[in-house]
Design brief:
Number of helices: 9
Strand content: 5-15%
Largest sheet: 5 strands, mixed
Distance between the termini: 52 Å
Low-confidence stretches: 165-173
Helix content: 55-70%
CATH topology of the largest domain: Alpha-Beta Plaits
Strand order of the largest sheet: 3-5-6-4-7
Number of domains: 2
Radius of gyration: 25 Å
CATH superfamily of the largest domain: Reverse transcriptase/Diguanylate cyclase domain
CATH class of the largest domain: Alpha Beta
Shape: elongated
CATH architecture of the largest domain: 2-Layer Sandwich
Amino acid sequence: MTGLKRSFVWLTLYLALILVLGQSDYAGRPIINFASYFYLAVMVAVPVTLFFPSVSKAYIPLLFWGGVYMVILKTVDRSVSTTYIDLPIIVLEFVLLEVGVWFAQQLATEIRYAESLMDTLAFGAFPNRVRDIEVESQRIKVELTRSRRYQRPLSLLMIEVEPDIEQTASAIARTIQHDLMNRFSFARVGQVIDDLIRQTDLFLKDRRGRYVILCSETRLPEVELFANRISEAVKEKTGLRMFWGYASFPDEALTFEDLMQKARERLITHQSYQDTVFKNALKDVSKL
């Protein structure tokens, strides 16, 4: 966690420096009068780089936001927001923007590293054979190709677990603790599912915290029964409510992306239905 703390401190000091330089006056005039679009670029570039790690790899953010600044510099009349049009001030703005993006990129890297450690700890406590969906892209292609070539059924089951309501409603100060608990719950659910699936099933997880099971030689009625059996086991062993969606190849979709989309639509429909049933049950209880 030392690297995470260091990156957070450096990013905080950087933002404070920008504020101090822009607001400090000398003899009634600002020491450095940055252009307004520079502040806007920093306000957008730093959080985007921080919260979208998929586009925060290598030097892509530095090149992208440097290019954005140069485009703004060429298209926006700088004299509208500042009297400083000197080259040194422009260079300073460019450098400070790139430094801010770099600090945000380092913090994003440290956050991803901390999350990976928590995932390793959670799945170490509840081991199962789930694999990352992006890592197994080649295996997915093989399964679809085999089913297409030999005209065999294939179904996809997408599973999402409802988070603990008490945890999500607790104080912000305990967010990290709750995040860790949710990861342990996710890993525990994975262990329960792993005990029920076949060796031939491909057990995956995506970035949004959902499990995806690619079930070979399985048609829609069978995968629906399978989903119900998993839901009952998860409820019995963890106390968590499970939602699911499914899709069949080739009856409903011909590509893995289409299978995922169809399963996602059914998952959302299942969530809405279960929430409606739950609310109606609460109303019935309140009338007693």
